[in-house]
Specification:
The complex is a heterodimer of chains A (about 270) and B (about 260). Chain A has two domains: about 1-45; about 50-270, Orthogonal Bundle (MetI-like fold), CATH 1.10.3720.10. In chain A, helix 9 (about 175-210) runs antiparallel to helix 11. Chain A has about 270 residues and is mainly alpha-helical. Helices cover about 80% and strands about 0% of the residues of chain A. Chain B is mostly helical. Chain B has a single domain (about 40-260), classed as MetI-like fold. Helix content of chain B is about 85%, strand content about 0%. Chain B has eleven helices and no strands. The longest helix of chain B has about 40 residues, at about 165-200. Chain B is flat, with a radius of gyration of 23 Å. Classes of the chains: A mainly alpha (about 270), B mainly alpha (about 260). Chains A and B meet through helix 1, helix 2, helix 5, helix 6 and helix 9 of A and helix 1, helix 4, helix 5, helix 8 and helix 9 of B.
Chain lengths: ~270, ~260
């Protein structure tokens, strides 16, 4: 959007043109999905035409178990994300505001973070079976680090002059966190939440696919074992739409919480 | 080396090693006499680790996994760059493709495994495709962003000097987008490892994910733990290698940022 603003002066016409172009893109994509199997480029047994998928989707949406699966996936997503954000933010601020704690924990964090959360799948299966907890183990492990690492680099970004000024004015520990550290860290935290939100969704679906906890992922693998190809694609579309919604919601949250922030920070600041 | 320097090095080493060592010691002691079926003593796991992984298993399971990861990852990086650069250069292309890319990116990559099994069977092709289809998005989207956000003044300079075609691409566009490209590649690596494991958990006859799920199904809990540790070690090793490569290739960029930091 900034791009259009720069080159066309941000006029209504520019925005209108952009919408039209976006629409052309979506229609083109739909046409490719419809025509590739119709023209026999890919066997419809593997990729049914879009219209068939849409019919299958409309059929699924009328079933109660579709909504139950959707609710389960979203519930584990929401619980897992909330826990990781709370834990990541509080631990991040705690560790970040003490140089000693930072030095002591750095190597451990660097060590634990790259461990892929899917490594925990067998433990989750053995301990929790096909329950919500299995989903949560994977979701929290994966998204906790996203939040923690962002918050840590946010705390490090606090202006040293501001910190020293606060100390000269004898701001207490809590006041320092509230008025100096928190405002600097907030944009980083929001980036962390946005990353964690999409990671949490991926891990929720992963857990359902591999462990078999009820949810959209399990419905997808059920469709697979039943050979219902169009239904599989229907679920893929549903997951993609949820993913888009999650991204849009996370960005909206950023804008509404930090309207004062000049530019939303990029992920690479770590 | 002076005494002070040695002390500083020792202090840093102590800080870096202190907590991990303490945690491992805690695990070792807490699990020492463990009769809990799911949490065998760390000592048992450590012995089992040598037994399980210092064996032909390295060639039978670890190397095939890493091979598929490498094929998929580098394939995704190449495709992401090749597709991403033109999209980043053309505003029209970007506007047309953006919603489609947003949608495709939002599909959780593990959900593609059943679909790709359908399309490509359960062989190495499927696993490589799974990794490509998951890893390509962070590379592609970051490349688009990086190319789009190139410096306008430099762009004008390049145009004034009539630097065009490959020279413009090689000396201006790729370097100015490379920090973002590396961000994408770093995210892609983490996704790639996850997909490597998951694709093997679904259907495979070898590989790390396959081995771990075999252990779990046969309730070989200590062996399963060694597999988990092995996966963790591979994750750490690969991210360290990536960091070294990035630091080397982006040395100019980190130096630039350091010098631009306000207040040092």
């Amino acid at each position: 959007m900034e791009d259009t603003a720069r080159t066309t002066g941000g006029g209504l016409r520019g925005r209108y043109l952009m919408r039209v172009q976006a629409l052309i893109g979506l229609i083109g994509f739909a046409a490719v999905l419809e025509l590739t199997p119709r023209l026999g480029l890919v066997s419809p047994r593997y990729l049914p035409p879009l219209s068939t998928i849409v019919v299958a989707l409309a059929n699924e949406v009328q079933q109660a178990n579709f909504w139950a699966a959707l609710a389960f996936t979203m519930r584990s997503w929401a619980i897992g994300l909330t826990i990781s954000v709370l834990a990541g933010a509080s631990l991040g601020i705690l560790i970040g505001s003490s140089t000693v704690l930072q030095a002591v924990t750095r190597s451990t964090i660097e060590f634990l973070r790259p461990i892929p959360s899917v490594a925990l799948i067998p433990i989750a299966i053995l301990l929790f079976g096909t329950t919500l907890q299995s989903n949560l183990v994977l979701i929290i492990y994966a998204s906790f680090w996203q939040v923690l690492v962002q918050v840590l680099s946010g705390v490090q970004d606090v202006d040293p002059v501001a910190r020293e000024t606060a100390q000269s004015y004898r701001l207490g520990h809590w006041a320092l966190i509230r008025y100096v550290i928190w405002p600097t860290t907030l944009p980083y935290l929001m980036t962390g939440i946005r990353l964690a939100a999409s990671v949490a969704l991926i891990l929720a679906i992963t857990a359902e696919l591999t462990i078999g906890t009820p949810g959209l992922g399990k419905e997808l693998s059920l469709a697979q074992s039943g050979g219902a190809v169009a239904v599989m694609y229907a679920y893929l579309i549903v997951m993609g739409l949820i993913g888009v919604l999650v991204n849009v919601a996370a960005r909206g949250l950023e804008h509404s919480i930090m309207p004062w922030h000049p530019s939303l920070r990029s992920e690479q600041s770590a | 080396m002076s005494g002070g320097k040695i002390r500083a090095v020792a202090r840093n080493a102590g800080l870096a090693l202190g907590l991990p060592v303490a945690l491992l010691a805690l695990w070792w002691i807490a699990s020492a006499g463990s009769a809990n079926f799911y949490f065998p003593p760390l000592q048992t796991i450590a012995q089992m680790f040598v037994e399980v992984w210092v064996s032909p298993r390295i060639f039978d399971d670890v190397l095939p996994s890493l091979g598929r990861l490498a094929a998929g990852y580098f394939g995704a990086v190449a495709l992401g760059l090749i597709i991403g650069i033109p999209i980043g250069l053309s505003r029209t292309l970007r506007n047309v493709l953006e919603p489609v890319l947003e949608f495709l990116r939002a599909i959780p990559p593990p959900a593609l495994v059943p679909i790709l099994i359908l399309l490509a069977g359960i062989g190495d092709t499927m696993k490589t495709l799974v990794i490509i289809s998951g890893c390509i998005w962070p590379v592609l989207l970051n490349t688009v962003e990086g190319v789009r956000g190139r410096d306008e003044v430099l762009e004008d300079v390049v145009r004034s000097y009539r630097i065009r075609g490959l020279a413009r691409l090689w000396h201006f566009i790729i370097p100015s987008a490379s920090p973002q490209m590396f961000t994408g590649m770093r995210q892609a690596l983490a996704i790639g490892i996850i997909l490597m494991v998951i694709s093997e958990m679904f259907a495979a006859s070898n590989g790390l994910g396959f081995a771990i799920i075999q252990f779990e199904r046969s309730f070989a809990v200590a062996e399963m733990w060694t597999g988990i540790i092995m996966l963790g070690l591979i994750g750490i090793l690969l991210s360290q290698i990536f960091r070294l490569v990035e630091r080397r290739m982006l040395a100019w960029y980190h130096g630039l940022r350091q010098s631009q930091r306000p207040g040092g």
